[in-house]
Amino acid sequence: MAGPLLPCRPPPYETRILGSQPARFPVHIRNIAIIAHVDHGKTTLVDMMLRQAGVFRAGQQVMERVMDSNPLERERGITILSKNTAVRWGDTKINIVDTPGHADFGGEVERILKMVDGVLLLVDAAEGPMPQTRFVTRKALALGLKPIVVINKIDRSDAEPLRVHDECLELFMDLEASSAQIDAPFLYASSRFGVAFEELPDKQGVGGRVSGVEAPDADTLHPTPLHPFIVPGTPDWLTGDLRPLFKAILDYVPPPEALEGPFQMLVSTLDHSPYVGRIAIGKIGRGRVRAGQTVALLPWGEPGLVPEGTFPRVKVAQLHGFEGLARVEVEEASAGEIVALSGLEGIEIGQTVTDPEAPERLAGIAVEEPTITVDFSVNTGPFAGRDGRYVTSRQLRERLFREVERNVALRVEETDSPDTFRVAGRGELHLGILMETMRREGYEFLVSRPRVITREGPNGEMHEPYEELLIDISEPFVGTVMEKLGPRRAELVDMRNPGHGTVRMAFRIPARGLFGYRSEFLTDTRGNGVMHHRFLEYGQWAGPLAGRSRGVMVSMVQGTAVAFALFNLQERGVLFVRPTEPVYEGMVVGEHCRPGDLDVNPAKGKRLTNMRQSGSDDAVLLEPPRDITLELALEYIEDNELIEVTPGAVRLRKRALGQNERKKRARSARAAVD
Ligand SMILES: Nc1nc2c(ncn2[C@@H]2O[C@H](COP(=O)(O)OP(=O)(O)OP(=O)(O)O)[C@@H](O)[C@H]2O)c(=O)[nH]1
Ligand SMILES: [Mg+2]
Q1: Cα–Cα dist 353/340, whole Å
Q2: What's the whole-model pTM score?
Q3: What whole-number distance in Å separates Cα of residue 283 and Cα of residue 117?
Q4: Which amino acid residue places its CA nearest to atom 9 of ligand 1?
Q5: Is the CB of 40 inside a 6 Å radius of any atom of ligand 1?
Q6: For 130-179, what is each residue's pLDDT tens digit?
């Protein structure tokens, strides 16, 4: 184990805060990112670190997962944007970046790794390493970062921390970690209860042994202030706190290099404010920067000196450092600190900002290329404009191009039709979030089925994106899953049966093969299975794939859905609409339980001979309809269908609404295949 860091050189980091507020100096710095697969507990851990480091006032009401601050993140319980925060632990400032775990945002995590000097790699004590764990670990190891492994959620009843410990080591070997990296410290933690242990606590005992950190006096270099925060309901055997984690960060994460010389900083992430525009966030690599200073914005390119005259010079309007949940305005900051610069008009991720006298570019990380594309177009349905505020192609165009300003992995292109825009992104979640955000802002539009973006292989052949698919299901469902994935061209890569009834299967599958699979998977496994997928690589075009195995029920009338009609239809499949919902001709109102589409009349009421009969409609027993979320819709629809997105509704519809037109198109499509 590495010993405590000795104060062998003068503390180089300095941040002068504007105004009279005295800053607590000198400080040491640690810059860390928290990385993991989705839902392994990163944001919950940051909550507890903030609490125990005393960021909140005593008694202050703080919402859970406070870093997931935007409404969509709160609603979905996931992190979408990475965020910076900082805590003080003794005389050390720890800058923490909470990152998103969903695979669509992997590129962002990769860039974040450039601004930190260490990572906390969280792994769920039951799930073990997952596809995204492998991805972020590979990136962190390749950058030479030495992780601190935190086996989290040890409180879970199905936790198997020792097995997961072994699996992490196996992963490190697989990824050819250096011996120093394999020697990473392992901690056992529960972010929910705010505890971390160096040794696995005994479930029968009281409190874990947190060797070495119980006596703060023994380590005078790192006084360990702690703001006790005991989560109600903490089991006895989990008595403890996060001191072992803070200690590990101080001991194992190297302080940032504090290079003297002309200012130089790589922009790792962007933020946006309606007042100051783009905000560039990164770690100062060398020298210092002041508010009001003129800097050079170097265009992307090879590392090294950039010729004079090829870059703009701009003034840093404001300079902010991170402190708890706030950003504090500072007048100057030096190498090693993570700062936010505003006023740099046109700045992009991956660019280097320097002293104009020493325009030396750093190696950036290219923004990941999109893998799927959809068409956004003006709503042409009969309900167009009913509840949206922005419905014209001009408004749609303006909004989409504005998005590109801050959503770096997104591309928007015009098409031959002035009403349609091609939007390319990293996956269904990436595009789904854009769609959801726009709908909340009052936009209305149609979205097509996603298409994969193909590339040309080395010999001119066509390549398409492949995904890594991981499925956890109970044994009896293995057969069904294999049967369904075969025609989708999935290749079984690994299968593990640890013997407790749940089987884990890993596949390599063309991204196209996954379209429409999630809803089938949920039906087939009756909601018991878990599936995760992430982009793996480009590979040979897999040839034609079968589409959705079931057809849909299409409304042949415009009107209002009636319980009586829905009751009769639910025998034919799963409905997507509720009674009293408006429907129109060509709208998809449910899934047919067989192949082939079915024209139906969801508005057909019982003949109203007297009041009692129509009143008795309410008593009809209806299955709850399937909720159509945007991501599900994106995965679900076929080429001849569209998603209608409005502030009040997400509907599925046929491209051609009229029955005759649909038949005609279906005939010509069949003819084209034959
Ligand atoms: N049992 C248990 N559940 C936990 C623990 N930590 C977090 N959770 C739960 O796991 C879920 C995900 O937690 P988050 O902190 O949002 O996970 P995350 O890694 O930030 O997720 P993303 O940002 O979406 O990748 C939430 O429901 C938490 O309550 C833990 O230590 N034990
Ligand atoms: Mg999170």
Answers
A1: 12
A2: 0.85
A3: 10
A4: 41
A5: yes
A6: 989 999 999 999 999 989 999 999 999 999 999 999 999 999 999 999 99
